[in-house]
Specification:
Length: 181
């Protein structure tokens, strides 16, 4: 009977061969480390993708609210610096407006005179990552590849009309990303 227990692994009286070798433990730890790294990177990318999806949905909702505002009042609201224009909240779904999805980001309604085309306007919804006037060290840019070259006036923006850009004081080629262009 004891021989049968040994064969199927139920006999614990013989201690020879019990436990793990140092090599087996190191290999197991290395595998766990690689798997943990893969999971961590996927969670980080998932978070960025979620932030971007939320920003895309929210800017679309703001654009719809602005369209309703335009229909009701005959014109777009005035520019709002680092916020949404007063009166727009009644057309928006419940939310934490004007805060954006990325930590420290804020929505900004831009109603600008186009510096390159006199008499034309730029209407866009921007998502800003820096406080007004900086410093650059206070900015909290997305960790996505499209934001690698972002600077103090960079923005993720949704263009309603005009020659949209990251910032009115910057050329259209200044680093930024248009959601719907």
């Amino acid at each position: 009977m004891r021989e049968l227990k040994k064969r199927i692994g139920l006999d614990k009286s013989d201690k020879s061969g019990a436990g793990f070798t140092l090599i087996e433990l190191l290999i197991t730890l290395a595998i766990i480390g690689v798997l943990a790294t893969i999971v961590f990177l996927n969670v980080k990318n998932s978070r960025e993708n979620t932030y971007y999806s939320r920003a895309s949905w929210e800017t679309t909702e703001i654009a719809k609210a602005l369209w309703i505002y335009l229909q009701e009042y005959g014109d777009y609201p005035s520019d709002a610096n680092r916020g949404l224009p007063p009166g727009l909240e009644v057309y928006l779904p419940a939310g934490n407006w004007p805060d954006g999805p990325w930590p420290g980001s804020v929505y900004d309604w831009d109603n600008w005179d186009d510096p390159d085309q006199p008499g034309k306007k730029i209407y866009q919804i921007s998502l800003r990552f820096c406080p007004i006037g900086g410093p650059l060290s206070a900015c909290n840019f997305p960790k996505a590849s499209w934001a690698q070259n972002f600077n103090i006036n960079s923005a993720l923006y949704y263009c309603l009309s005009g020659s949209c850009r990251s910032h009115v004081a910057s050329p259209p080629s200044y680093p930024g990303k248009c959601i719907n262009c």
